[in-house]
């Protein structure tokens, strides 16, 4: 019976994938993904779902490949990665296709070690076009991070150019934000408590409100 276990890229392979998504080298990224899919005998959607930044000790940032271009505002890389999350028609109803179908939305909403999704990072860094692409692909703006804040609150608290526009766009176009996710018992620090956040916020205090153009990582 075919296995549904996700392949695991080697540490070096994962580092290369992260580097290319962070620096925005689309041609090299496409080539590497093709190569690794052949090596691990899996479709791109499965490779992406298994490419999470976790080190040998089970730590690391736990970010997905979507986090890095989201932080940098690289719409080209984001668009390409999102396109790879759609299982190939050639997979039919195979276990790999089923796994890919389940992996795609969870990867778009994957929370890193700080609880931030790619949408959090795009919004807090002011990248509206990336925010729009992620929401269109199924990103959930009501998800809260470990600080109890959703993507809108993080954008409102950010000092980055364009962040406030990201917050305003999500409030206008995304359902479930005005009443806040606190109603579901998930976190009282999200959109439902926005007034309190506005009164207590201090600009520039979010350690993840940075880009990755210089090749660094955030926690």
From TrEMBL:
**UniProt keyword terms in alphabetical order:** ANK repeat, Repeat
Q: Where is the composition biased (Basic and acidic residues)?
A: 194-204
Q: Which Pfam families match?
A: Ank
Residue ranges of the ANK repeats are: 114-146
What SMART domains does this protein's entry cite? ANK (SM00248)
Annotated segments matching region Disordered:
179-219
The record's listing under PANTHER family reads: ANKYRIN REPEAT AND PROTEIN KINASE DOMAIN-CONTAINING PROTEIN, ANKYRIN REPEAT-CONTAINING PROTEIN-RELATED
Descriptive protein name? Uncharacterized protein
Tell me the lineage of the source organism. Eukaryota, Fungi, Dikarya, Ascomycota, Pezizomycotina
């Amino acid at each position: 019976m075919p296995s549904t276990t996700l392949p695991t890229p080697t540490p070096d392979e994962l580092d290369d994938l992260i580097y290319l998504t962070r620096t925005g080298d689309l041609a090299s990224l496409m080539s590497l993904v093709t190569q690794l899919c052949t090596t691990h005998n899996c479709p791109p959607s499965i490779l992406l779902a298994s490419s999470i930044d976790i080190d040998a000790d089970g730590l690391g940032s736990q970010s997905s490949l979507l986090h890095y271009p989201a932080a940098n505002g690289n719409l080209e890389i984001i668009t390409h990665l999102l396109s790879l999350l759609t299982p190939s028609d050639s997979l039919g109803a195979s276990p790999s296709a089923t796994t890919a179908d389940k992996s795609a939305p969870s990867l778009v909403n994957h929370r890193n070690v700080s609880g931030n999704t790619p949408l959090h990072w795009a919004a807090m860094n002011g990248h509206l076009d990336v925010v729009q692409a992620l929401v269109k692909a199924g990103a959930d703006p009501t998800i809260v991070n470990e600080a109890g804040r959703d993507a809108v609150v993080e954008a409102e608290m950010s000092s980055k150019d364009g962040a406030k526009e990201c917050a305003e766009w999500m409030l206008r176009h995304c359902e479930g934000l005005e009443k806040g996710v606190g109603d579901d018992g998930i976190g009282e620090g999200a959109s439902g408590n926005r007034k309190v956040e506005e009164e207590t916020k201090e600009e520039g205090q979010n350690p993840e409100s940075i880009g990755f153009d210089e090749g660094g990582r955030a926690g």
